[in-house]
Amino acid sequence: MGQKINPLGFRLGITQNHRSYWFAKPKKYSKVFEEDKKIRDCIELYVQKHIKNSSNYGGIARVEIKRKTDLIQVEIYTGFPALLVESRGQGIEQLKLNVQNILSSGDRRLRMTLIEIAKPYGEPNILAEYIALQLESRVAFRRTMKKAIELAKKGNIKGIKIQIAGRLNGAEIARVEWAREGRVPLQTIRARINYCYYAAQTIYGVLGIKVWIFQDEE
Amino acid sequence: MAAALPMKPGKVGVEEAAETVHRIRITLSSKNVKNLEKVCADLIKGAKDKRLKVKGPVRMPTKVMRITTRKSPCGEGTNTWDGFELRVHKRVIDLHSPSEVVKQITSITIEPGVEVEVTIADV
């Protein structure tokens, strides 16, 4: 038995696209990378402040950043766009302004788009957030896992695996529990597997949630 | 706009520069060969449509930047190494054309992930 490689990184050339797609020469690479991180952090902060509360979760599956010379394209894939588009008619103007303030030089245009995902619970990020919310409200973990699998099965997925690690149900001794439905072939590169790790903060500590969703084969 | 620039004797010269032909070198770099070749082909097609003299895409040798790190966070275990690499592909296209036409062409074909650099070497 050994360690498992992150299935996203494993499939980067095939069946998985880069989430940041740009080119920069080695001298400027670190600066552009830092900027990417700042954009993502800003979006995460905005979602945390405005949307997340005890009964709601952010619903952002992923953020893709593409750069061309003088244009930065940020695409936010979300399962619940209505949450991000708060006031009528304003859309994501506030978020766009926040991100623009962070970007250092203003001579680059920023284009931010919201893309809605058809079946939100088919994305591991959104599913993991849902599980975390349940665990933080002290729902029994096994029931949460089963409910999450049921939610995911509504979309057309071929397999799902959920692993929760930590002080389950507040026990003193931490352990790892996982539930699987269908098949999740991690060794098959042409299998389109989406993966997410999310940490749930409970009063007993941190519960690590890992979700693998096998969508289809190539 | 030409009327509002008092101290620009070169303004007339700029008008004339539309006729003078410059040697222009376009350097395209990218990590991704397919996008790079596509942008190359688009640029050359655009230039040939305007009937400019084009020196076809010269493919520079690929630069491979390798980073080799231990997989282990501690020193224990068999010494397994990760070999990450970043491949930079570079193409060079030479044109003989006035600079405005070049700006037109380069503004049309831009793909994400391809860096375009234009240098003008005055003849």
Number of strands of chain A: 8
* Overall pLDDT confidence of chain B: 80
Can you tell me the residue ranges of chain A where pLDDT is under 50 for at least 5 consecutive residues? none
State the order of secondary-structure elements of chain A, H for helix, E for strand.
HEHEEHHEHHEEEE
Please give the CATH class of the largest domain in chain A. Answer: Alpha Beta
The largest sheet of chain B, given as strand count, sense and whether it forms a barrel, is: 4 strands, antiparallel
Biggest sheet descriptor of chain A = 4 strands, mixed
Biggest sheet: strand arrangement of chain A: 1-2-3-4
Can you count the helices of chain B? Answer: 3
Strand ordering within the main sheet of chain B: 2-3-1-4
| Overall SS class of chain B | alpha+beta
CATH architecture of the largest domain in chain A: 2-Layer Sandwich
- Number of helical segments of chain A? 6
CATH C-level of the domain at 30-73 and 80-121 in chain B: Alpha Beta
Q: Say how many strands of chain B there are.
A: 4
Using the coordinates shown, work out and report the CATH topology of the largest domain in chain A: GMP Synthetase, Chain A, domain 3
Helical content of chain B, roughly? 25-40%
GO biological process, one term (chain B): translation
Organism (chain B): Marchantia polymorpha (Common liverwort)
Domain Small ribosomal subunit protein uS10 (chain B): 25-119
GO molecular function (chain B): RNA binding; structural constituent of ribosome
